[in-house]
Write a structure and sequence with these properties.
Chain lengths: ~190, ~200
């Protein structure tokens, strides 16, 4: 959605147009879903968070004031939701075994991203996705969120620094270390082709 | 290669598109970070099920269809205020309700409250009443009053005539006394007359 059309859609949504709200969510939902999925590691939670974000969009859009980028504003809300979800959980679920049963009695392998990707992108991509999930799971929470916001939120280091109230150099340092760790866990062969 | 905070600061500005000149080490680090991010971009791809969007949009539509929260709270406030006002009115009515007269027995005359009200006032009220039983009572009372008035009149007349006779007798006695006192011979002569 180009900038002009985006502003018109936002204005219509702020006036109460249901179609405008639907259009906004449809424009960003793949990135939002991907962010939630990589941050939480579970399809159902990602879907639930996406629904909750839709509700927050309805309740909070009037507070958006066009000063910053809209997708940055949206992903700030998403980042807070993920942080709150982790606080409630207190611990991120470990991807310990692909055959271990989950809380819904389905094997964990069925709930990993790789399994749903396998249908569409082949086994190699599924394996890479699975390794990535394991590697992300090993990162420190804030570093993981910074890398995900950088990718899915398409945020600059400066914007991420504003969210986490820290220097820009600190954000880059953490992202740099996180990327090295991902490379190390996933293997030079898988990540760096 | 270990970078300082200031070097990371410049590299971050450069990666964000800022106009910054990097040193050789900083340039190497910047290229490495950019390369890792590009590779990660491919690995991060996820298949987002359309059903997730549909469910999210349904929840959004339901939220939009709800009335505004302030409207909900305003309605609750108005309802609560109306109930409170109704309760206050009912309590006030029950507290200040006047004493109710005892119900009339069937076919009987109406009872009159025991108060010191002159009989004339009562009769005037009853005359103005539209109740047919009140009319019967009025007639009875009127009849009794007439009778009483006639008796009182008779008594008063009798009393008044008796009073007149008494007054005459008293006057005669007074005159007799005067005579006797003033002319005692008249009395002796009569006694002599009677004895012969």
């Amino acid at each position: 959605m180009d900038q002009q059309r985006l502003q018109a859609t936002i204005a219509a949504a702020q006036s109460g147009s249901p179609e405008a709200y639907q259009a906004l969510l449809e424009s960003y939902w793949p990135r939002l879903y991907g962010y939630f999925l990589r941050a939480i590691g579970h399809h159902h939670d990602a879907e639930d968070l996406l629904g909750e974000l839709g509700l927050k969009l309805v309740r909070q859009l009037k507070s958006y004031d066009d000063r910053g980028r809209f997708d940055q504003w949206l992903f700030r809300i998403a980042a807070n939701m993920v942080r709150d979800r982790f606080r409630r959980r207190k611990v991120r679920p470990h991807v310990a075994s692909l055959s271990a049963g989950g809380d819904d009695d389905s094997p964990m392998s069925d709930r990993l991203v790789g399994n749903s990707v396998a249908v569409e992108h082949g086994l190699e991509a599924a394996e890479m996705s699975r390794e990535l999930n394991e590697a992300l799971d090993r990162l420190e929470g804030t570093t993981r969120q910074m890398i995900l916001l950088r990718h899915f939120g398409e945020m600059s280091f400066k914007e991420i620094a504003e969210i986490y109230q820290c220097p820009v150099g600190t954000v880059l340092a953490r992202v740099h270390r996180g990327l090295k760790s991902l490379r190390r866990v996933m293997g030079q062969k898988s990540v760096m082709t | 290669m270990k970078l300082t905070d200031q070097q990371y600061e410049r590299i971050a500005q450069w990666l964000d598109g800022g106009d910054v000149t990097l040193s050789e080490d900083e340039q190497i680090a910047a290229e490495e970070i950019r390369g890792d991010e590009a590779v990660l971009c491919d690995a991060m791809q996820t298949a987002a099920p359309r059903s997730a969007l549909t469910r999210a949009q349904n929840r959004m539509a339901a939220e939009l269809a709800r009335p505004a929260r302030w409207v909900v709270w305003a309605r609750r406030g108005v309802a609560a205020a109306a109930m409170a006002a109704a309760a206050i009115i009912l309590i006030t009515v029950f507290v200040h309700m006047p004493a109710i007269d005892k119900p009339k027995p069937a076919g009987g005359p109406s009872t009159v409250a025991k108060v010191d009200i002159p009989i004339d006032v009562i009769l005037d009220e009853m005359e103005n009443s539209n109740d047919p039983t009140d009319t019967v009572v009025i007639d009875l009372l009127a009849g009794e009053l007439d009778q009483l008035q006639a008796e009182m009149l008779a008594v008063s007349v009798t009393n008044s005539s008796n009073n007149t006779i008494d007054l005459n007798l008293n006057a005669i006695e007074d005159e007799l006394e005067d005579v006797l006192i003033n002319d005692p011979a008249t009395l002796l002569l009569d006694e002599d007359t009677q004895t012969s």
